[in-house]
Amino acid sequence: MKADLIGRRGFLQSVAAATLLLGSHKRLFAEGVKRSFGARKPEEVLEGEEFHLTLEETVVNITGTPKVATTINGSLPGPTLKWREGDEVTIHVTNKMPESASIHWHGIILPFNMDGVPGISYPGIAPGETFTYRFKVNQSGTYWYHSHTPFHEQTGMHGSIIIEPRESEPFEYDRDYIVSLSDWSDEKPSAIFRKLKIFSDYYNFNQRTVGDFFEEVKEKGFVEAFKARKMWNEMRMSDRDLSDVTAYTYTYLMNGMTDSQDWRGLFKKGEKVRLRLINESAMTNFDIRIPGLKMEVVAADGNYVKPVEVDEIRIGVAETYDVIVKPDDRAYCIFAQSIERSGFVGGTLAPDSTSKAVRPPMDKPQPLTMADMGMGAYSEKPKKMNMAHMKMTTERSEPKYPITPLPIRRSGPAVTMWAKDPRYRLDDPGVGLRGNGRKVLTYADLRSLRSTADDPQPDREIVLHLTGNMERYIWSINGITYDESEPLKFNYGERLRITFVNDTMMNHPMHLHGMWSDLETGDDAHLVRKHTLLVQPGSKLSCRVTVDAKGAWAFHCHLLYHMLGMFRKVEVV
Ligand SMILES: [Cu+2]
Predict the structure, then answer these.
(1) In terms of DSSP bridges, do strands 567-572 and 488-490 run parallel, antiparallel, or are they unpaired?
(2) Which of 85-89, 145-149, 179-183, 225-229 comes out lowest in average pLDDT?
(3) H runs (alpha helix) in 363-467
(4) d(CA 163, CA 227)
(5) What DSSP string runs through 349-414?
């Protein structure tokens, strides 16, 4: 099945047009909506203090079939916005679509009424209207922006943000490229969602077969193989369930280009290249590597970290990493494979505009382990680590703060499983990346460059269980979906500890708007400042939040089709 799938993708990509431009397609215009044809534009960068963005429907051709995308200034992804730390920016966003729309500035610290979440920050932008955002830029680094109106993000409404710092950066480079990743589908997002509601494994072509079972019998003997299967079956779960939506419907894009269109970044011999990796996908967690090159990670989610050299990075939906590479005088492939290994997109880093880098084969998918099911420790040998670090990875002396009880439902339609023994697994590269012989970045490797030793200790803690019902494709927090939930109350001025317990078998990228999430890595002197935390299946993860922004904020899983249920409104009072 997998081979067929890749064959099909390969075919689609080979017929994909090199541009988005296409001829007349009457059917697409039958609904009486004015749509423009999108021509492949050069990557557009808008710079300064005042910006004009237009949201509209554009006909694009990514797989060989013309489809309607929701675009910003007619391109997919939208233009890159270049701001300067300390400036006040004004952004006029005009909605030329037949329905309400929105733009949210992901990871940007700003007043809540500029955050762009319909129903929380503002009513959204009505058809024909222009909404003007105005705020002071108080940070620097690599970020992105996207629609917060369900489904517009999936059809193209996202773009990158670069914020130039006022002070010089703690590293040097000669070239600066954005590498944004996204997942395009010719299917309508509503159709994808409907299919998932009917069969949650609709797009999962990686389920076990009878053949797999006999392979296991060969390896482990019948009794062990049978026991393992029986256990999974009793839990009504599959250890191959790594992503809900896969390359069966998705074409993965790098800076809006397919693998065969081969986005390329040029460099001259001896140059250091900065790559700003941004996961702008709706649903896809990617694993990125550049075979033959080490990546020096210098920033995470826009904030400087102590440089760490790695071969591979798992980038959760909405996360950003800045890396510096030192290529030799030849072509390299920037290779991003989806977490469940159904597909990939590559680009080329090269000294000239002709040589194309060979794509490595995709890795085999790894099945989930018992640790991923929340049943105990991740069992790979611990690497050398300092004692502070040891604390968080083994949980020997987890800090304790007063826990504020929250409403919780341990049974019901929105929850089918609880992790029995969830653990902190900061040094676990995660399913698919374990024992692959490459140095994979883990959260345990991240240390903020600035000291956080003087940051206050938490006043209290809340625990959020990430829960769901896979069979009915319902996602929830503490067993309660968003529409049935009460807002979370944060107290202005407090230091709050938030602990996530992932009771599901999926990675959930959790995103708190308006305030930073200082990730606990076991080293309190260098907490990493992030906006999105990828919480591994069956694991725990904690962060600290200085509640310094009044108003109403969104707090949710960034996987688009999870967001409807796995969402909370936060009120800072
Ligand atoms: Cu999720």
Answers:
(1) parallel
(2) 225-229
(3) 387-394
(4) 54
(5) EESSSS--PPPPPPPPPPPP-TGGGTBS---SPP-S--HHHHHHHH-TT----PBPP----SSSTT
Residue type, 522: G
Measured in Å, residue 86 CA sits from the centre of ligand 1 at: 34
Single-letter code of the amino acid located at 221: G
Residue 56 is inside which H or E element, if any?
A: strand 50-61
Distance 467 CA to ligand 1 centre (A): 9
3 Cβ neighbours under 8 A, 6+ residues apart:
none
Tell me how far the alpha carbon of residue 22 lies from the centroid of ligand 1, in angstroms: 36
Q: Are 62 and 155 in contact (CB under 8 A)?
A: no
Q: Residue 540 forms beta bridges with which residues?
A: 424, 501
Give the distance (Å) from ligand 1 centre to CA of residue 558: 6
CA of 539 to the centre of ligand 1 (A): 14
Q: What share of the chain is helix, strand, coil (3-state, %, to 5)?
A: 15, 35, 50
Please, what is the average pLDDT of the chain?
Answer: 87
Q: What pLDDT is recorded for position 227?
A: 63
* 563 Cα to the center of ligand 1, angstroms: 7
Whole-number Å distance, alpha carbon 35 to ligand 1 midpoint, is 33
Token pair 């990686």 is at which residue?
206
Element (H, E) at 462: strand 460-469
Report pLDDT digits (tens) over 461-504. 999 999 999 888 999 999 999 999 999 999 999 999 999 999 99
**pLDDT tens, 18-47?**
234 333 343 444 444 455 555 455 679 999
- pLDDT-based confidence at residue 83 (cuts at 50, 70, 90): very high
**Length of the chain as a residue count:** 573
Contacts of 563 (CB under 8 A, 6+ apart): 150, 475, 556, 557
Q: What confidence tier does 401 reach under pLDDT thresholds 50, 70, 90?
A: very high
